[in-house]
Design a protein that fits this description.
The chain has 301 residues and is an alpha/beta fold. The chain folds into 2 domains: 106 residues, D-Maltodextrin-Binding Protein, domain 2, CATH 3.40.190; 149 residues, D-Maltodextrin-Binding Protein, domain 2 (3-Layer(aba) Sandwich), CATH 3.40.190.10. It has a 5-stranded mixed β-sheet. A 3-stranded parallel β-sheet has the order 2-1-3. A two-stranded antiparallel ribbon has the order 4-5. The longest helix is centred in the N-terminal third of the chain and has 17 residues. The radius of gyration is 26 Å and the shape is globular. The chain starts with a helix and ends with a strand.
């Protein structure tokens, strides 16, 4: 484009003596129409996922000239949402923001985002209905699923086999996981632990797996939640699981709250037989352990 503009300028200079009084219409026709700038802030800073986003951005930008998209990773999910709120107050808010699912109500309460449902031509028919329902507030689709994920169980198959189990065995309950770890320890298998980040997401998921609601008022859907069902049988079962892990020293973590990378490192460093984290990490973890041990995955027990 720069070379084209340079050539046009040279041509204009060479012919100015002949056509010094060109019309306004002719002059305006030489003006470059700038594309509409769209900024997208997200929380996927690792090379694999941010690289994938950049590929999609590049493909879109080269497919047309009306819009130009710029993407930027802004840190954690909380960091990204907070940065967007601050940017709005400062008058330079991004166009699109990647908000984690638990931040949906927080984002809605800020009043700075326009619900997707208010865009009349936006087609949501291609989205899985139960997933889309999570992002629907007061009957309106507030946002769209971008990288919805679920926690799954990652398994060090080499340690599992060393403990005497089949390579395809997948524990289905809390008790199953504890039994495998204790059996592995009895057989002197190194790294007989379970690792996962210390985060409330797992508590939420384990409540849902048991068909229980975490909050009152129908999980905050009927009206704003005012209490947490921590004394329900489902919640007590989760609490007992954590208690057993602590008392028997079966849980391995870095000691830092929400240390996703640290807990991943424990597992990829061959220091745990089980690991629980997001489906979104499968690609990165697979690459990290491909030369160290055989990886297995299964449904969250």
């Amino acid at each position: 484009m720069k070379k084209t503009l340079t050539g046009l300028c040279a041509l204009l200079l060479a012919t100015m003596a002949l056509f010094a009084n060109g019309t306004a219409e002719q002059k305006n026709s030489l003006q470059v129409v700038k594309p509409i700038e769209i900024t997208f802030w997200h929380a996927l800073g690792d090379a694999t996922r941010s690289g994938w986003i950049q590929e999609k951005v590049d493909a879109f930008n080269t497919s047309q000239t009306k819009y130009h998209v710029t993407q930027e990773a802004k840190g954690s999910y909380r960091d990204t949402l907070q940065a967007a709120v601050l940017a709005d107050k400062q008058g330079n808010a991004p166009s699109l923001v990647h908000v984690f699912e638990v931040g949906s109500q927080l984002a809605f309460d800020t009043g700075i985002f326009m619900p997707v449902g208010n865009i009349g031509s936006f087609d949501t028919s291609d989205y899985i209905k139960p997933v889309l329902n999570y992002y629907t507030i007061k009957g309106t689709v507030n946002s769209i699923p971008f990288n919805s994920s679920s926690p799954i169980l990652y398994i060090n198959v080499d340690k599992l086999v060393a403990a005497g189990y089949r390579s395809d065995y997948v524990p289905e309950t809390f008790e199953d996981m504890i039994e495998v770890i204790e059996t592995a320890r009895a057989k002197k298998v190194a790294g007989a632990n379970i690792s996962f980040a210390l985060h409330g997401w797992y508590f939420e998921q384990w409540m849902a797996e048991q068909g229980a609601v975490l909050l009152n008022n129908d999980n905050g859907r009927a009206s704003r939640a005012t209490g947490v069902n921590l004394t329900s049988p489902a919640a007590v079962a989760i609490g007992n699981f954590f208690s057993t892990l602590g008392k028997k020293n079966l849980y391995s973590y870095t000691g830092r709250f929400e240390d996703w990378d640290g807990s991943d490192a424990i597992f990829t460093g061959n220091k745990a037989i089980f690991h629980i984290t997001s489906t979104a990490d499968l690609g990165n973890i697979s690459k990290a352990v491909e030369k160290s041990f055989t990886l297995g995955v299964g449904k969250l027990p």
